[in-house]
Design goal:
This protein is 27% helix and 27% strand. The chain has 495 residues and is an alpha+beta fold. It has a single domain (2-351), classed as tricorn interacting facor f3 domain (Immunoglobulin-like). The protein has an eight-stranded mixed β-sheet, with no helix packed on it. A hairpin with a 4-residue loop joins strand 2 and strand 3.
Length: 495
């Protein structure tokens, strides 16, 4: 029973980690006093973008963060070609190539991009002018783009990545250098710290990620490792992400790794990376990943991507993060004294591959669709190991925690822009799903999850979309249930 209680408490560990996610890799004294780049402008004789009817919007109109992302085009694919000249300082040179389609006639359009010296910028192989203000990069092509026109943007740049701080989080995110390595924490808008991007989940794209590092460093990133090229003093790693990915799920990790490969019984390849300095037993919480993948595939539908894996770094950063196809863990998320407890965190991040990664939120206000589902993934893993008694114990434990601390666990359906990853979107979000399960029964509940994933995989969904699927599959009117669990201040009783 002691172990079971640790497994239950691990849900709290995930929440607390995400509440205190400040990466310890960068001391506060070393974070630049201004985390947003200063204005940089290439002079151009163009009209003000605010009054130019052919200017793409400098945001996507997200209800919480209207400035996130950009309008006027849809991105199809990114190719990131990054050469890290010095791992200790993160000094690099890179070219990001973006293939996109204009959704309206465009005389200019925006990308999200912080810091760096831009050495070249072309649109369709023609030099383009650009303007910079904050993290907005406004591109002015030599020739206006027609509606539905496919176009290619290539941006070459050099320098050291600038840490990012958004309204959503009180600490630096993005490209993080620490003693001995590098990791990238992109959620919710840290991708702009290392490549020009349309940084909102609504604009998913495929990726090719090419990273060159000096010996003896190695690279882990999203997708399938297609090629490793020995250049003598450097090595180039090429990864391909063939399924659409939201930009906040991109990650690059550099260190000296011990690599472990395996596969689930159903054939899903698994590739795990452990910092070489860590003890051998660091791999123990990940031994059942294949079992987890197949179990969740039965519940949610087939695993949606080509590969999965985990990476454990030899630094503390207070969290685990569900990057598409590769979750990353700070060493402080591994409890060597209770492997079963850590497995619950592993299950949480794996559940995100379906709910958060394959299906991403259409608006950041619906973040409970990510975190509540992943939290309930922990509960389902407890049920797998301990049966219905274990699940009931989990529900009672979490319900009491939420009931006793209402300020820490607000209604998950309306998070504050300044507190996006609050405890409510995790634990009360998970309880919402259990309340749905009790109301509609197990058969309908899991049919709802499978139908929801099948309908919205590789795209985006809202809370309303999920409720519509739940009502369609169950044949029940569920507005009252979801209103009570997602929006009422008072925690409702479990059905």
């Amino acid at each position: 029973m002691k172990k079971r209680y640790f497994v239950l408490a691990s849900a709290l560990l995930v929440v607390l980690a995400c509440q205190t996610l400040a990466p310890t890799a960068i001391p506060a004294s070393e974070v630049p006093p201004t985390l947003v780049p200063t204005e940089e402008t290439v002079p151009t004789e163009t009209t003000d973008a605010a009054t130019d009817p052919l200017a793409g919007a400098d945001g996507m109109g997200d209800s919480l963060y209207p400035e996130f992302g950009n309008g006027g085009y849809n991105t199809l694919t990114y190719t990131l070609d990054i050469t890290i000249n010095n791992v200790d300082t993160s000094k690099l040179e890179a070219t990001t190539t973006i293939e996109a389609v204009a959704t309206e006639e465009l005389s200019r359009f925006n990308l999200d991009f912080a810091g760096f010296e831009i050495t070249s910028l072309t649109v369709n192989d023609e030099a383009a002018e650009f303007e910079r203000k904050g993290q907005e990069l406004t591109v002015i092509p030599a020739q206006a783009l027609s509606k539905d026109e496919a176009f290619t943007v290539a941006v070459s740049y050099q320098g050291v990545p600038t840490p990012m701080v958004s309204q959503a989080l009180p600490f630096p995110t993005g490209w993080i250098a620490y003693d001995g390595g590098i990791f990238v924490l992109s959620e919710p808008d840290g991708s702009a710290s290392f490549y020009p991007v349309n940084d909102h989940p609504l604009d998913k794209a495929t990726y090719t990620i090419i990273v060159t590092v000096p010996e003896p460093y190695e690279v882990a990133a999203n997708g399938v490792l297609e090629e490793t090229t020995d250049n003598g003093d450097t090595t180039t790693y090429t990864f391909t992400v063939r399924d659409p990915m939201a930009s906040y799920l991109t990650t690059i990790n550099v260190n000296d790794f011990n690599t472990e490969t395996m596969a689930s019984a159903s054939g899903v390849p698994i590739r795990n990376y452990y910092a070489a300095s860590l003890p051998e037993e660091v791999n123990k919480p990940f031994a059942r990943q294949g079992e987890m993948i197949d179990y969740f595939s039965d519940l949610f539908g087939p695993y949606p991507f080509e590969v999965y894996g985990a990476l454990v770094m030899d630094t503390e950063f207070g969290a685990a993060l569900e990057n598409q196809t590769m979750s990353i863990f700070g060493i402080d998320m591994i409890d060597f004294d209770d492997i079963e407890g850590t497995e619950a965190v592993v299950a949480h991040e794996l559940t995100h591959q379906w709910f958060g990664d394959s299906i991403s939120v259409a608006d950041w206000s619906d973040i409970w669709l990510n975190e509540g589902f992943a939290t309930y993934g922990e509960a389902l893993w407890v049920e797998y190991d301990y049966g219905k008694d274990g699940l009931d114990e989990w529900v009672a434990f979490i319900y009491e925690e939420v009931k006793m601390n209402p300020n820490f666990y607000p209604p998950p359906g309306n998070p504050d822009a300044n507190d996006l990853f609050n405890g409510g979107v995790y634990l009360r979000g998970g309880l919402t799903l259990h309340a749905l399960r009790v109301t509609v029964g197990d058969d309908a509940f899991f049919d709802i999850l499978r139908t929801y994933h099948e309908r919205y995989k590789f795209s985006n969904a809202t809370t309303e979309d999920f409720i519509a699927v739940a009502e369609e599959v169950s044949g029940k009117q569920l507005d009252d249930l979801f209103d009570a669990w997602l929006y009422d201040e008072q925690l409702p009783p479990m059905p």
